[in-house]
Structures are given as C-alpha cells and as structure tokens.
Design goal:
Elements lengths: L7 E9 L2 H9 L4 E5 L13 H13 L3 E6 L8 H13 L4 E4 L13 E4 L8 H9 L4 E3 L6 H9 L4 E8 L11 H6 L16 E5 L4 E6 L6 E3 L4 H7 L3 E4 L6 H21 L3 E3 L4 E2 L15 E2 L21 E9 L4 E3 L10 E5 L5 E5 L2 E3 L2 E3 L11 E6 L1 H9 L4 E12 L2 E8 L5 E7 L3 E2 L3 H12 L7 E9 L4 E2 L2 H18 L22 E2 L8 H9 L4 E2 L13 E5 L3 H4 L15 E6 L2 E8 L4 E5 L1
Parallel strand pairs: 1-2, 1-11, 1-12, 2-3, 3-4, 4-5, 5-6, 6-7, 7-11, 10-14, 22-26, 28-29
Antiparallel strand pairs: 7-10, 8-9, 8-31, 13-22, 15-16, 15-21, 17-18, 17-21, 19-20, 22-23, 23-24, 25-27, 30-33, 31-32, 32-33
Helix pairs in contact: 1-2, 4-5, 5-7, 10-11
Length: about 600
C-alpha cells in the first residue's frame, strides 16, 4: 500500500492510578494506559505491584490495548542495580513499553522492551527527538509547550512515534526543568515527589520593591483541553493522545476517557486512512462532558501560539462548569440564567468581590429556584460554577463498562446435534462448541427459527454484541430454550477467554551505539544523577557533565524553573508582542519570606525563576 494511503493507528492513552483504574480506562475507551512502576515513577505515591501490572496487561491485551509502565524519575547510584532487576521483572509481566527519563537506563542490560522517552526528558526540538530515536526510543513524549508548527517540524526529522498531552493539569515549568519544590522542601519533581509549589499564592514585586500584585497564584496554570484540535495534531504527525491524571478519581477517568474516545471516533468515522489501535466499539449511556469533572478552566496552552489567559490567577482549585450569572436573590433562594439542570446535593462555587473562591451546597431546587443555607454570601451578577454535579457523578458511578466487541455467530447442524461457532469481527480466530442432542423437526418452522435467533443474540452481562447470525439447517429444528442459552453462554465464555489470542507484544532489542549528542557540555539541567547516566552521555560524545541539581551542594543563584508562562506578557508589558504602557517591571516572586528572582529571556520567549 502506498505511503499516502497507508492506514495509521491512533491511540487514546489514559492514566491508571492502579490496575483497577487501568481496567476502567480500557472499558471507557482507552487504547492504552500508563501506570506507575513499583518504584521510580514520576508520581511516587502511585506505585503498583508487579502482580497488579501483570493482571492489567492480561486484561488490556484481550482488547489489543497496551500497557505502558512509568519508571520516569532520575536514579541515584545506589538504585541502579535494583532498577535493572525491576525493568526485567516489568518485562516479564508482559507490558508493552517502559516510559523513562534517566538515560542511564540504556547502559543497563535491558530486555527487548520498547522504550518511550518521558516528557521529563525535556523533548523540545527535532535534534533531541532525533537523537532519542537513534539511541533506541520508539516513542517520544513531546513537551507540552510545543506549538502545532513545532510538532510538524519535529515530525519531519524523525520516524519515532510522537505522543502529546491533550488533557489535564499542566506543569508551569518545562518538565524535567523544575527544581523549585526540591529547593523549598527537598521534594524533587524529578524524583516523583513534587509538592506543587507552583500552585502557591505569591506576591509580585517590581525592581524598586513595590508590590504589584498580592497573594495571587501567579504560576498556577489552567488545565489543558485540546479536544477541538485532535485532527490538527493527527495531521501534524501525532499518533498518541495522552490524558493526564494518575492521581485523579474514578469519575474523572471515566468522563474524560469517554469524552476523548467520542472525539477520536468521530474523526475515525470519516477518515478511512486512520483506525483505532485496540478492538471494540463504545456505547455510552451518558454524555461525556470534560467541564463536569475536575478542572481549573481550560486552555489549549501554546498549541496555537501565545495567549494571555492561560493561568488560574485567583485559585488553583477546581471550578468545574460555569452555570451562568445570578439573576435574582430573595431571602429564601436565588436564580441563575442557565440551561443546566441542578439537583439536590450539587456543589457550587464562585469568586467573591475579593476574588476568593467560596463553595456552597444546593439544599433543594424547586422550579429553578435554588435553595442554600449560604445565601448571605451571594450577590447578583456573581458567576456560579458547579464543581460537583451530583446526578452526573451518580450516573457515572453506576456504569461499569462501555466497550463491546462485535462478533459473528454461525449455527449449523451436525450428525449428532448442532455446532455454534463464534468469531471476533476483523480478527482471525474463533471458537466453537457442539450441542449433542437428538434433532427434533419443528412443528412451526418460523417460530422455531425466531426463538433460536432470540436466544442466541442475548448478550446481556457480557462484552459482546452480535453483528451477524447465520443459521444453516437442512430443515427447521426445535431446540429447547435452556439448551440454546447454555450453548450460547458456554461459547461466549470461551471466546472471552480467547480474546486477544493473536495479540503479541513488540520485542525491541537494544544495542548501545555512539550516535553523537548535539552538545559537548551539560550542566545540572541534564539531570545526571548516577554513573550510568554520565557514561551514557560520554559514550555519545559529551565531554563535560555536571551533577543533577538534587546532588548539588550549592543551590543558590540557580535557575529553578524555565517556563513559557510570562508574567510580563500577562501584564501587557511584553516589548516583543505588546506596547507596554506601565513602567513597573516585575522582578521578584515572594512566598512568605522566600523571594525568587525573575528573568525574561525574550529571545527564546521564556521566563526564568531563580533562587
């Protein structure tokens, strides 16, 4: 098939806090899930046992869905032997790929497992992505900050798979380049222990010492939502679309996986050159809505260029979905201009005149009149958000599975009775069982055949949907309903056990090479924290390496964060893109008694936060 019409597989990748969450993600639309290794994951509190990972892989592979294990922290010297052993155990558990940050892993004796370069590896340009491909990575998780045009340029220089984040919370710093949490309290983001210092309230101070803004969440970003740009990303060369949220709850996982599944399926429906990478179809008994579970309001971040309104200045907490403004308040209730239905138990919130986030609970709703015991806090024209949709969450909680596998059934007669064969649609395997029974010619042929069809197409309580049933008899036979049901249940049970029978995990063997790195000297931002990492870079031509920030004795006057969020730009004071009207230049961020210096690298369009 020519390249221009080659079918490309697209993957929806969802987070898995644990194996149960991983199965939920697969049931609600994920083609793949990523889950934390027992240790050394970028979410230290989301580790999982090897047994649980193995069980998840077995379940996922029934649907040709994949399991990626995150082992994406930097490693210390005394952890190298344990890590090598753990990687081999992860491979034996049957997973599809390992997500890594520490390139010292490539100096280990690795099993033939696919390697994905974590976004923590700071994958921001074509030279880095090309290098990672050359040394053995089959996939690169791109930096969240990249624009569509930058992704297009990267794809021109690599054949590696490209994965991008499309939804969820955003790190304000380039991943792998943030040291502020470790600086403040010894909890390193590169070790999976980030304390989320970026969500704290800061004062903004100018170079004269004047306070420009007080107690604002100046580094806290809105969440990402790129649902409207999936096809643009596909055309740019992306094949895996990642939802953030290994620490989020079950309802967040269900809702957002289903939300993006529907978006991707609508693209696949009209584009025959693309297909999903797992098997199954989805039927949702609810309407997924990304605004109805945890979110700090949304932006597409820098996908379509720089914008001012990407930060969550007033609060780092979830706002949920905007319902509209208050139109009327009485001594007993208030009313909103909204098309949304509210119910008892809903959680609402609003920003008061001081921009403080206030929550309230709906006690009852009668004829669009909303009753709460906190009426005194409300004022007309306040915008009201719902951060807990009681009925929506109740519905989500009641649904266990939305994935169904299409199968064909073929019932035929044999000398000693009947044979039922079941085959999975578009898969080259099937199962069959016989019903040993004396054949009895039906008195009412039409009614007998109708009964057979009715019983064999009952699939309630299973994951199967019958798309075709063929009956091949020499004459119409009567078969007892109980016998038909027993035969159907037995065949479907066997087919379920054989799901994924022709699934194979890709095996990639790793041979160290000396493909040259594009820099000769590396400072602490390369996150080199062990001898194998240093050896790796030296093998690839780097002449001088510096220890990782976490191992450095002197942490003063260091760059703690590099971010595309620019406070000058957000204040309208960017000389490059705007016409500043004020003379005050932001110089420091202050949290309690701790001050951080700001520098603005306008050439590279980034802001630096320094100790």
């Amino acid at each position: 098939m020519p390249d221009e019409i080659r079918i490309k597989q697209l993957e929806l990748l969802s987070p898995a806090k644990n194996s149960d969450y991983g199965k939920i993600a697969i049931n609600f639309g994920a083609d793949a899930v990523y889950i934390g290794a027992p240790k050394f994951s970028a979410r230290a509190s989301a580790g999982n046992s090897l047994h649980d990972i193995e069980q998840l892989a077995k379940y996922a592979h029934k649907f040709h869905a994949k399991v990626y294990v995150a082992l994406n922290t930097i490693l210390y010297e005394n952890e190298l032997e344990e890590t090598e052993k753990l990687i081999n155990q992860i491979y034996q558990a049957g997973v599809d790929a390992l997500i890594v940050q520490d390139l010292g892993i490539l100096e280990m004796k690795l099993p033939p497992i696919a390697l994905h370069a974590s976004t923590q590896a700071h994958n921001t340009h074509a030279m880095k992505v090309n290098f990672l491909e050359k040394v053995g990575f089959s996939r690169v998780v791109l930096a969240r900050e990249l624009s569509e045009n930058q992704i297009i340029e990267i794809k021109k220089e690599t054949t590696a798979e490209l994965e991008v984040f499309v939804h969820g919370a955003l790190c304000v710093s380039y991943s792998g380049q943030c040291y502020i949490s470790h600086y403040l309290g010894g909890r390193s983001g590169n070790r999976g222990e980030c304390a989320q210092a970026c969500r704290l309230p800061f004062d903004l101070i100018d170079k004269t010492g004047k306070t420009m803004l007080k107690n604002k969440h100046l580094l806290s970003l809105k969440d990402m939502n790129r649902a409207d740009y999936l096809y643009d990303l596909i055309q740019a060369g992306v094949t895996s679309f990642k939802i953030e949220g290994r620490m989020k709850d079950e309802n967040y996982l269900k809702n957002n996986t289903a939300f993006y599944r529907k978006k991707l399926d609508s693209i696949l429906e009209n584009k025959p050159t693309y297909k999903t990478s797992s098997i199954g179809h989805f039927f949702f008994d609810f309407e997924p809505d990304a605004e109805k579970t945890f979110n700090r309001k949304y932006s597409d971040y820098f996908l379509n260029g720089r914008k001012q309104d990407i930060h969550s200045l007033d609060t780092p907490k979830s706002l949920g979905k905007s319902l509209g403004k208050i139109t009327n308040i009485t001594s007993e209730y208030f009313q909103l201009l909204t098309n949304e239905e509210l119910s008892n138990g809903d959680g609402l919130c609003f920003l008061n005149e001081n921009k403080e986030l206030i929550g309230l609970r709906v006690e009852k709703v009668i004829d669009k009149k909303i009753y709460t015991n906190q009426l005194a806090l409300l004022k007309k024209e306040f915008e009201i958000y719902r951060n807990h949709d009681h009925q929506f969450i109740k519905t989500l909680s009641s649904i266990e599975n939305c994935r169904f596998v299409s199968i064909r059934l073929f019932l035929s007669e044999i000398q000693t009775g009947f044979r039922l064969k079941a085959s999975v649609e578009n898969q080259n395997y099937s199962v069959e069982q016989t019903l040993e029974i004396e054949k009895e010619i039906a008195n009412n042929a039409e009614k007998a055949i109708e009964n057979i069809k009715n019983q064999l197409t009952k699939t309630g309580g299973t994951i199967f949907k019958i798309t075709d049933l063929k009956i091949e008899f020499s004459t119409a036979y009567f078969i007892q309903t109980s016998k038909l049901n027993e035969l159907r249940r037995s065949v479907l049970a066997e087919l379920y056990e054989r799901l994924g029978a022709n699934y194979t995990t890709e095996k990639i063997r790793h041979t160290p090479n000396s493909f040259p790195y594009f820099e000769k000297e590396l400072n602490y931002q390369a996150n080199i924290s062990n001898s194998l990492s240093a050896k790796f870079y030296q093998r690839h031509g780097v002449e001088k390496v510096e220890k990782a920030f976490e191992l450095s004795e002197n942490k003063e006057n260091k760059q703690l964060m590099v971010t595309k969020l620019c406070i000058k730009y957000n204040l309208g004071q960017c000389e490059k893109y705007q016409k500043p009207t004020k003379s005050e230049i932001p110089k420091y961020l202050k949290y309690n008694n701790q001050k951080f210096m700001l520098e603005f690298d306008c050439k590279n369009c980034v802001m630096l936060v320094k100790s």
